[in-house]
């Protein structure tokens, strides 16, 4: 259907809003004071500005407070209340159960962070409807631009779909003469929305290597961050895996959600073919990625510069922090030239007691449940490892020479010993070490210590720090700060491998999923799934059946993509949020200065998730009032 959700009636007014929404001096759509479509598409230069305006609606996914995956779930926690050190409190309030329908938090439907996904879609439609007016544009350039905008249009629909479930589909903008009833769009069924987005992504990725989108960016200086064919196919894979997952595939919880005319918005009948469709999409995306030389990142060291353990740690950290590395399928720079600058400051504590920089906040604090999620050094869950003392994990233990990721002679909890490399690469804690390119630092975070709480702000409430998100190239002194900002990895190859493994397992091909898990594990310094479970797990046959493999894949995904904003959405699409987000949030007793008192577990918050209501955002009451054809999500 060609429908449009909008609250305005004049396209001229719409254009003025679009122009006003652009930052002054940044990707201006048209010359000053001449807000007309004819000028916007009068030549290549002006049309390119409009193209970049379409990009400007992309959410700032690398900003610590604008991506719900960072703080709205259970991966990280922070002190409360906050009066400083934030851009928006919305995500923290969602995590604390304060979402509502009157003034929805992170309301990307009506507009959040100066970005409305509907406005972005309208802008894309204007571009697609007018690009043929440009007379000095080479055909191959026009084809590429059209493909980019079709992708962006699909991505804005996808972003809303993941948050709200069934949404209206805005295929093209309505004319000025449209009647009031025509603009009051109803929501479309889940399967229709998925098919529409998928078809649009197919259009964006069509053509051979010399038509439409490039497979990879060749001119990095001016084009990094723009869409490639591999990125389109990878996002399609993510879309179809999500559509095949329990939240959308055979979910009876939303069977009663219907439009005003009685049209059902969820199909409560499970369809195995959705997983088969996801398998095909994932495999094609992987094949195209490999053909474009996308490969799992591995750190290449200079001779004699770092030991093997540090090399593995850099394998892991640089998958995120190394600019435009070999694994990155799509990195977004939405928000400017330093898209992850603030994220790194929020994640990094004071490292050097003799050179304190107050810009290092250290407040982006992993929860204790995340510390328990990572495997043992043997590559299996801590509660399954036959050689690991799970029951005594909170008892104190002294660091010895062989515990190379920690400070010799230091006392810390047993939970921190004999863990896999990703645990030490992703997280830091009292008694751990923190490698940077300009040196290795000791984290000491008991009350009053250089990495710990010394004031009412800028500290870790849990006692943990998110090392994974801080570039090893950062240099902080008491008088200067150099932050190597990197593009936020919306999609990287390991994520795509894990999506494919999941889809294979759900279609009865568990054995075919194992090689993709093992490639990721090998990069992280672990043995294969088969070897690790057979030799160390109390459930040695777990990987030989679909149910066991499902648990393995989900935990592997939670570990590999920890703190990258994936878990928040995965728990929802798996329908496991009701279990995971109704658990207490724990941390260490950071107010204490003695070893014994500090290393005692304290309750920080009793998190609550209202199922099935909280699986989707509420549509704001005002939007419902303006458009009576919209129905509210269940429970709101």
CATH class of the domain at 11-66 and 106-294: Mainly Alpha
How far apart are the termini?
27 Å
Query: Can you give the helix content as a percent range?
Result: 25-40%
What Rg do the Cα atoms give? 25 Å
How many helices? 23
Shape: globular
Strand tally is: 14
Which structural class matches the secondary elements? Answer: mainly alpha
Assembly context of the chains: single chain
* CATH architecture label of the domain at 11-66 and 106-294: Alpha Horseshoe
Q: How would you state the average pLDDT, rounded?
A: 92
Spans of 5+ residues with little confidence (pLDDT < 50)? Answer: 1-34
CATH level-3 fold name of the domain at 11-66 and 106-294 = Serine Threonine Protein Phosphatase 5, Tetratricopeptide repeat
Percent strand = 5-15%
Output the keywords.
about 625 residues; mainly alpha; Serine Threonine Protein Phosphatase 5, Tetratricopeptide repeat; two-stranded antiparallel ribbon; two-stranded antiparallel sheet; 23 helices; 14 strands; about 10% strand; disordered N terminus
Structure report:
It is built from 23 helices and 14 strands. It has 636 residues and is mainly α. The chain has a domain at 11-66 and 106-294: Alpha Horseshoe (Serine Threonine Protein Phosphatase 5, Tetratricopeptide repeat), CATH 1.25.40. Strands 1-3 form a two-stranded antiparallel ribbon. A two-stranded antiparallel ribbon has the order 2-12. A two-stranded antiparallel sheet has the order 4-5. Strand 7 and strand 8 (439-442) form a beta hairpin. The model is unreliable at 1-34 (pLDDT under 50).
């Amino acid at each position: 259907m060609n429908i449009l959700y909008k609250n305005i009636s004049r396209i001229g007014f719409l254009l003025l809003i679009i122009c006003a929404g652009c930052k002054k001096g940044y990707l201006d759509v048209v010359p000053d004071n001449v807000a007309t479509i004819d000028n916007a598409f009068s030549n290549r230069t002006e049309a390119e500005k409009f193209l970049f305006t379409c990009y400007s609606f992309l959410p700032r996914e690398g900003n610590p407070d604008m991506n719900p995956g960072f703080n709205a779930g259970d991966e990280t926690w922070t002190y409360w209340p906050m009066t400083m050190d934030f851009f928006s409190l919305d995500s923290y309030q969602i995590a604390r159960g304060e979402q509502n329908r009157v003034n929805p938090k992170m309301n990307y439907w009506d507009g959040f962070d100066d970005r409305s996904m509907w406005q972005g879609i309208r802008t894309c439609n204007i571009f697609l409807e007018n690009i043929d007016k440009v007379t000095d544009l080479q055909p191959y350039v026009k084809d590429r631009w059209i493909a980019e905008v079709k992708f962006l249009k699909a991505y804005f629909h996808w972003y809303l779909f993941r948050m709200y479930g069934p949404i209206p589909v805005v295929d093209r903008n309505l004319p000025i003469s449209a009647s009031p009833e025509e603009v009051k769009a109803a929501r479309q069924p889940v399967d229709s929305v998925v098919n529409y987005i998928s078809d649009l992504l197919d259009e964006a990725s069509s053509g051979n290597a010399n038509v439409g989108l490039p497979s990879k960016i060749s001119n990095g200086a001016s084009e990094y961050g723009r869409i490639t064919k591999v990125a389109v196919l990878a996002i399609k894979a993510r879309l179809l895996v999500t559509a095949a997952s329990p939240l959308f595939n055979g979910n009876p919880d939303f069977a009663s959600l219907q439009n005003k005319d009685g049209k059902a918005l969820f199909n409560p009948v499970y369809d195995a073919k959705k997983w088969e469709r996801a398998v095909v999409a994932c495999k094609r995306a992987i094949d195209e990625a490999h053909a474009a030389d996308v490969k799992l990142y591995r750190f290449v060291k200079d001779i004699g510069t770092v030991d093997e353990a540090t090399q593995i740690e850099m394998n892991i950290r640089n998958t995120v922090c190394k600019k435009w590395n070999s694994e990155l399928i799509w990195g977004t720079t939405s928000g400017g030239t330093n898209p992850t600058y603030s994220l790194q400051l929020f994640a990094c504590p004071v490292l050097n007691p003799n050179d304190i920089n107050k810009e290092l906040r250290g407040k982006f604090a992993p929860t204790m449940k995340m510390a328990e999620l990572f495997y043992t050094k043997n590559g299996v869950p801590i509660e399954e490892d036959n050689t690991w003392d799970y029951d005594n994990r909170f008892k104190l233990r002294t660091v010895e020479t062989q515990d190379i990721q920690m400070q010799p002679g230091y006392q810390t909890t047993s939970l921190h010993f004999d863990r896999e490399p990703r645990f030490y690469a992703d997280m830091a804690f009292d008694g751990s070490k923190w490698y940077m390119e300009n040196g290795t630092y000791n984290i000491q975070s008991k009350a009053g210590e250089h990495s710990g709480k010394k004031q009412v702000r800028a500290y870790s409430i849990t006692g943990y720090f998110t090392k994974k998100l801080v570039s090893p190239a950062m240099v902080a002194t008491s008088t200067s700060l150099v932050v190597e900002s990197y593009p936020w990895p919306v999609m990287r190859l390991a994520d795509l491998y894990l999506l494919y493994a999941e889809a294979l397992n759900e279609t009865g091909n568990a054995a075919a999923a194992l090689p993709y898990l093992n490639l990721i594990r090998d990069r992280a310094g672990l043995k294969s799934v088969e070897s690790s479970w057979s030799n160390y797990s109390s459930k040695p046959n777990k990987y030989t059946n679909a149910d066991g493999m499902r648990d393995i894949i989900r935990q592997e995904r939670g570990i590999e993509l920890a703190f990258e904003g994936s878990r928040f959405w995965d728990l929802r699409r798996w329908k496991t949020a009701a279990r995971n987000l109704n658990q207490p949030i724990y941390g260490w007793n950071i107010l204490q200065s003695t070893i014994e008192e500090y290393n005692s577990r304290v309750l920080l918050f009793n998190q609550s998730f209202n199922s099935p209501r909280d699986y989707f955002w509420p549509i704001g009451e005002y939007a419902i009032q303006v458009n009576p054809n919209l129905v509210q999500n269940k429970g709101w």
